[in-house]
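Lab meeting prep.
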Amino acid sequence: MPVEISKTAWGGWPNCWRVANGEVEVIVTADVGPRLIRYAYINGPNAFYENTAELGQSGEPDFRVRGGHRLWTAPEQYPRTYAADNFPVDVRTQGALLEATGPVEGNTGLRKQLLVRMAQAGSAVTVIHRIENTLPWPVELSPWTVTMMAPGGIGFTGFPPRGTHPEQLSPTNPLVMWAFTNFADPRWTFLERYLVLRQDAARPSPQKAGLFNEKTWGAYWRDGLLFVKRANAEPGRTYPDFGCSFEIWTNPTTLELETLGPLTKLEPGAMLEHAERWTLHHTPEPTWTDAGLDAVTASVL
């Protein structure tokens, strides 16, 4: 059936928008944001994390986690990265395209915009992230998309194609740590071709790692539902965080799949774009081995 876009109430917010094609739906908030707060099969569980204590709220002076999918800026800096997105959003539609534009952030001079386009059949959704510089001087930043996943699942990503020694002597990609990263933590699994991180409510310490992959992607499996997000990175461009195009983070509450664009000197009045492509899949739990994940990714990437 054709894509339908309609206004709806959701999560205590009276002004949300639903993009649906009869198989999947995306809910976009307009009382706060721009945020994509739900992505799911029709009548199915939300793939995204929801902080129920913060749903339906608005107008707070500082940043709220809330859940869902948001657009941040990297490198991570306070207060610029943590600009509050708690205020009304302008939503416009044109055919099957929804455009959600936030107000200019008072402490950054940036304006953020999310464009959502859903396929007429299947689960595919393209999300275009835009950042506009309204300041009279240039700013350097990277678009950083943060997707917060429902708790209790397992996130994973792939390394760039592997090679052999001594045929390939040059390094192929960074693997980046933060000060709190502990690769002895049992939530991590390192395979030849994949990096796996489990979300565990019983473990209080956060964990994070990043890498660069020209064909950037991350996935999350939970209770038979697999979420996949993909983005294209640009070799030769400078990326934040020692060269990361993908980052994965977890704490006791959620797990985040994050993609990043190249660092850009954004001139006054200029706008940058960063695209992600999403899909959902009904998938039995993989075998958490290279062969098991090869079988999954062969059908979804």
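Slide two material, second protein:
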Amino acid sequence: MVDDSILLKLENIKTYFFLPKGLFKTIVLKAVDGVSLEMRKGESLAIVGESGSGKTTLGRTAIKLIEPTEGKIVFDGKDITRLNDEKEMRNFRRSAQIIFQDPFMSLNPYMTIREILEEPLIVHGFSDPKERYEIIVKALVDVKLQPPEEFLLKYPHMLSGGQRQRVGIARAMVLEPKFIVADEPVSMIDASSRAEILYLFKSLQEKYNLTFMYITHDIATAKYFSDNLAVMYLGKIVEYGPSREVIMNPKHPYTSALISAVPDPDPNNRFIYRKVISGEIPSAVNPPSGCRFHTRCPYRFELCDREEPKLEKINFEHKVACHLYTKK
């Protein structure tokens, strides 16, 4: 029986990149290496982890900007892993959109804001210019670029970083999607605009029942914005659960270290001991055997070196992949 509340289901997704090395050799970079998760309609899921953990690749694979090497993607009850039909792919593209990290690079500098927002409508067959105009104006109002008439004929370089990111959000919204991947959407804008953008996401989610995959380095914003949180390390999810539960009661040593690294504005906590992860994240070309975090883990023991822990429940909806909790 199909659960109608599930919008996105990823089953053992692996996304590998095959890179040439010399004339006859190829190396395999395992960016995402066996990720399974479900997202319910209207849910927001934050994916956190260091650079190189596979967050962005997972997000782009989920909306098929990158084809998975193995695994299965089910969207709104339909298997879309290998979509070959152009009409079905167009329908999926309308339902799943992405907001890119860099608002400077993701907008065409030679197009006006109206042209940028009109392009996806033209591609998807909105032939009536009046209808397109009304949709564009509504999208600009939704992202708080008002009055919209003042922005239609401007070019991206005439806007601030926060305004450019709002245009990027409006571009994702014009097709009325069900699912949005927001890839580090506030990392390239000034601090004063970040809270406004996250509040905007919240209001759009509530207004249109959107499902968000929020990719970020910032655990503080993940706690504010997301319902659930998945921690990735070297292509795998090592901890998953409700955001407040994971942040207030982290189980995996990697999650604990990430949370410990968040700056605390209270000067009284300045000298509190903070957990520091030693070393660098290993290469995804040659990941460690056993638990992938064992080369940096302060609690490592013999089993960690040779056996990979499974992501298992330790209490209601809280899962962790760590031998400290799953060993018999």
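Talking points for slide two:
The mean pLDDT is 90.
Residues 6-326 form a domain with the Rossmann fold fold (CATH 3.40.50.300).
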